[in-house]
Amino acid sequence: MIINVLLWILFGALAGWIAGKLMGNTQGLLTNILLGIVGSVLGGLIAGVLGIQTSGFSFGALLVAIGGACLVIVLLRAIKK
């Protein structure tokens, strides 16, 4: 159980790093990692509501996590303005 949680945190961190690169986020590595973790949770919730199954560590789950992280970055940018 604890191993799975740690793996998902790492998965979210990877998604945050990738989303930061895609979005041109200059906040820094730690911020991108935190946004990725939050974004992967948000992306998973949105995918679940839409009926998209993303179970386990797969390419589809990574895409959902990256999409969620990008969404979080967009929302933070909108809040800052």
Outline type: globular
Secondary-structure element order, as H and E?
Answer: HHH
Q: Count the helices. How many? A: 3
Termini Cα gap: 40 Å
The figure for the number of domains is: 1
Main sheet properties: none
Helix content: over 70%
Instruction: Report the β-strand fraction as a percent range.
Output: under 5%
What Rg do the Cα atoms give?
12 Å
* Weakly predicted, low-confidence segments: none
Roughly what is the average pLDDT, rounded to an integer?
82
Strand runs, count: 0
How would you explain this protein's 3D organization?
The protein is an all-alpha fold. The protein has one domain (2-80). It is 81% helix and 0% strand. It has helices at 2-23, 29-50, 59-80. The longest helix has 22 residues, at 2-23. The protein is globular. The model has no long low-confidence stretch (mean pLDDT 82).
